[in-house]
Write a structure and sequence with these properties.
mainly alpha, 35 helices
């Protein structure tokens, strides 16, 4: 009940509220103005005459203040930069093009004078505070020094080797630019330019001397050492990051080059020379990691660890068979991980451990192709089911893959798993890393066992048996139930509130309790183990298709394993997938049993329907209701398989569809599955249509009338229960199911009976809709009646139009358009009235 005030009183209330709002707005605007005045105080300006009187007078001892450049890059830097670039281009053009027009004295005098002027001007500009201008002129001066060096070589040292002269010139320029940058400390360009130029002398010297690849890589390492020294013993904000970047660039190339030579070495002697270079790289990396800040120490330690592994592994590779090349590197990485102990700074420990872990991970990736071949190779057997058991497991998997290098892949995977378990034990306090390490170790161990039969070329029966046992073992790991959480040592008995009773005293307040952490770890382990079991079972099921006996045995065992897992697993997710897998293997087992009797595919479909029927009964009686929906979805997939198998024989297809309808109707009896009743009706209708098509019935009404009658009965019942229901929802689908196909058939029918009957039915439907104010009946019936009448009258209309003069039809159309246009408002009102009338119908 609402108690609205009188209009006068309500107006007074509104006016009072508006006054309050205006007062509040004025208060907020005043506060805003005060805040602006505090943040950005206005600059007081004197009147013009006052400014003239108080202007400073330049007298003795008074130095006028010079204008300042903008501290941040702004618009003024654009012309300065462009000016510097243009002057540089002009100098280059003068040196290269106009050089021959002057004598040797004039050339040297002009270029030297311009260079000296360009290098001296920044000092004067810095005194006046023009930093940006000084930067531009200094850049021009540095470019001119390069041109001076070029000119000197062309004029006085033309006989000197160009590469050797470039090496000396780059070293001299780097020294001069360094001195110039240190003398004018406010300039930011000279020192980085000197550092970049310093990367060239050693490498150019090696090229000039005709040194080999090993010497060239040594020069890269020497340059990297120079960069490291600059990075460690300088404090410039612009120089240190550049020095670290250049050290990484040169050191990385040295590491890659030396590692490539170590890999390509043909003997122990050939591997020792790049090995020594790699050890020098490692020494430089360790020295950098020891002296560098913590934020820059991990990466050099990683490079040092990789260099040590490459040096030792490259030497070991030349002394062992080819199959042991990658395992040799992995064993060297494991040895490095074993050597790394506490005592080193934490960044160095992390870097060395990361290098070893990266090599072990790379070895694991190298060992994955046999695992992938084992999982995906049995797909080829789908094209030759029951063709006979092959001689070995490799023949069943793939005949194109070379297995000579893969004999040691299980060993590499087991080493990687052991490394992860060792890391798990050595990091007892890292709660995020430990569950992932255990799951990774489990996955790597499973991969090793999965690849072992193919890598060692087991026989077919032994390999299939091992895969079945591996599936059972991983399911056993996944189904295990965790025991009670033991009380931690030193924890007090439960004397507090429930919120603190489950948390030991040693647990920080922000961390989850041990039971929650253990539950999350167990969940990850369960998912990992179940995923491994599922992948193994799928590969084993496809692998068993080579032999009839193996198919029955493997599918039966897998059915039992996954059924038991779905019944006893304790988590929420994997039992659902396990139940679906059990249904899939039950379908395969049933189809295999039926195929063993040499039945045609459409008869096998009838046998496969036993699986969805059993699934429907089982889903209705399951104590764990969460398993019902995945099972029913898998049963529906089996039913679709049965329909596909029976698609080639219409006489069996209609029976399969009808039986599927019976199964769905039985499921729809349950209160939570009532919507499946629509699917059951659709299946029954589809079965009827297939039966009619198999009997060569081509009359469309034979297909549509059963649908229409059933839909209209349902619509009548719905309208009785809900009188407000729309006629489109109640009667529209049923009427459209017959009227529309019959209309299409009537338009192509040359006889008079079908159009006559269709027109009579449409007229009856239209009159019924008008009588009971049902929109669906009126619209559908009227539309079908009009189109049917148009079809019947069309020949006569065409004949009459053909007898008329050619000009008459266009004239009539024009008159019609004129009439409609002249009475547009009235026609619009009529259309609106018609729309409102139809809208009032249900």
């Amino acid at each position: 009940m609402e108690n609205a005030p009188p209009p006068a009183e309500e107006l007074v209330i509104l006016d009072r509220e508006l006054v309050h709002l205006d007062a509040r707005r004025a208060q907020l605007l005043a506060r805003r103005a005060w805040l602006i005045s505090v943040l950005w105080p206005p600059v007081p300006q004197a009147p013009p005459f006052a400014r003239a009187q108080t202007a400073p007078r330049f007298g003795a001892g008074h130095v006028p203040r010079a204008p300042k450049d903008a501290s941040a890059p702004g618009a003024q830097n654009v012309p300065l930069t462009l000016g510097g670039i243009l002057l540089t281009i002009a100098a280059i053009a003068f040196t290269l093009v106009s050089w021959g027009d002057m004598g040797i004295g004039g050339r040297s005098l002009v270029l030297g004078a311009v260079t000296a002027l360009a290098l001296a001007t920044p000092a004067l500009l810095l005194r006046r505070g023009l930093v940006s201008t000084a930067e531009s002129v200094a850049a021009l001066g540095l470019a001119l020094t390069v041109l001076d060096a070029y000119a000197l070589h062309r004029v006085a040292l033309a006989d000197v080797d160009g590469v050797g002269y470039a090496a000396i010139a780059s070293a001299v320029l780097a020294a001069l630019w360094t001195a110039y940058g240190l003398a004018l400390g406010r300039l930011r360009i000279p020192l980085p330019a000197a550092l970049i130029t310093a990367q060239l002398p050693f490498l150019l010297w090696a090229l000039a001397a005709g040194a080999g690849p090993l010497t060239a890589v040594w020069t890269l390492l020497a340059t990297a050492a120079l960069d490291v020294a600059v990075a460690l013993w300088t404090t410039g904000r612009a120089v240190r990051p550049l020095a670290y970047a250049l050290a990484w660039l040169m050191g990385g190339w040295a590491l890659i080059g030396a590692g490539g030579m170590a890999v390509a070495a043909g003997g122990v002697g050939d591997a020792l020379r790049p090995g020594a270079l790699l050890l020098a790289v490692a020494a430089l990396g360790l020295c950098t990691a020891w002296r560098a800040p913590s934020s820059h120490a991990v990466a050099p330690a990683v490079a040092a660890g990789l260099a040590v592994i490459a040096a030792v592994g490259g030497t070991v590779r030349t002394a062992v068979p080819d199959a042991w090349a990658v395992p040799g590197y992995v064993l060297c990485a494991v040895a490095l991980l074993a050597v790394v102990r506490a005592g080193l700074p934490r960044p160095m420990t992390l870097g060395l451990a990361g290098a070893g872990g990266a090599v072990v991970a790379g070895g694991a990736v190298w060992a994955l192709p046999p695992v992938a071949a084992t999982l995906l190779g049995p797909v080829n057997l789908l094209e030759r089911v029951w063709s006979g058991a092959p001689d070995g497991i490799r023949a069943a998997l793939s005949g194109e893959l070379s297995w000579s290098w893969a004999t040691l892949t299980p060993l590499v995977l087991l080493i990687a798993a052991a490394a992860l378990l060792t890391a798990h034990r050595l990091t007892p306090t890292d709660r995020t890393w430990r569950p992932a390490s255990v799951c990774g170790a489990l996955a790597l161990t499973w991969s090793a066992l999965l690849a072992a039969p193919a890598a060692l070329d087991f026989g077919y029966p032994a390999a299939v048996s091992l895969y079945v046992l591996l599936t059972a073992a991983t399911l056993a790991v996944a189904v295990r139930r965790p025991g009670p959480d033991p009380a931690p040592a030193g924890s007090a008995p439960d004397t507090g509130s429930p919120a603190t009773a489950a948390r030991p005293k040693s647990t920080p307040p922000g961390d989850p309790p041990p039971a929650a952490r253990r539950g999350a770890a167990d969940g990850q382990l369960t998912l990992t183990a179940f995923g491994c079991a599922l992948a193994t079972s799928a590969a084993t099921a496809m692998l068993s298709l080579a032999s009839e006996a193996a198919t029955f045995t493997v599918l039966g065992v897998l059915l039992a394993l996954f059924t038991g897992y779905a019944a006893y697993a304790a988590d929420r997710v994997t039992p659902l997938v396990g139940a679906c897998a059990a249904a899939v293997y039950a379908t395969g087992f049933t189809a295999a049993v039926a195929a063993s009797f040499h039945l045609p595919p459409h008869h096998v479909a009838l046998a496969v329907l036993a699986v969805p029927a059993a699934v429907a009964v089982l889903a209705a009686r399951l104590p764990r209701r969460a398993l019902a929906l995945p099972l029913e979805i898998t049963g529906a997939a089996a039913a679709l398989l049965a329909i596909g198998l029976a698609a080639g024989d219409a006489a069996t297809l209609w029976l399969v569809l009808a039986l599927c309808g019976v199964i769905v109707a039985g499921t729809a009896v349950r209160a939570d599955r009532r919507p499946l009743g629509y699917a059951a009706v659709a299946l029954f209708v589809l079965a009827t249509w297939v039966r009619l098509a198999a009997s060569d019935v081509v009359t469309p009404e034979a297909y549509t009338l059963p649908v229409t009658v059933s839909a209209l009965v349902v619509g009548v019942l719905r309208r009785r229960r809900d009188p407000q229901a729309s006629s489109w929802a109640a009667y529209g689908p049923g009427l459209a199911a017959t009227l529309l196909p019959s209309l299409f058939a009537a338009w192509g029918d040359q006889h008079w009976l079908r159009p006559l009957l269709l027109g009579a039915v449409a007229l009856a439907v239209t009159l019924t809709g008008a009588r009971h104010r049902l929109q669906a009946l009126l619209v559908l019936g009227g539309a079908v009646l009009a189109l049917d009448a148009l079809h019947e009258l069309a020949p006569y209309v065409v004949q009459a139009v053909g007898a008329l003069p050619r000009w008459l039809p266009p004239a009539l159309v024009g008159l019609l358009l004129l009439a409609v246009g002249a009475t547009y408002e009235q026609r619009l009102r009529d259309a609106r009235r018609l729309r409102e009338t139809l809208g009032r119908m249900r």
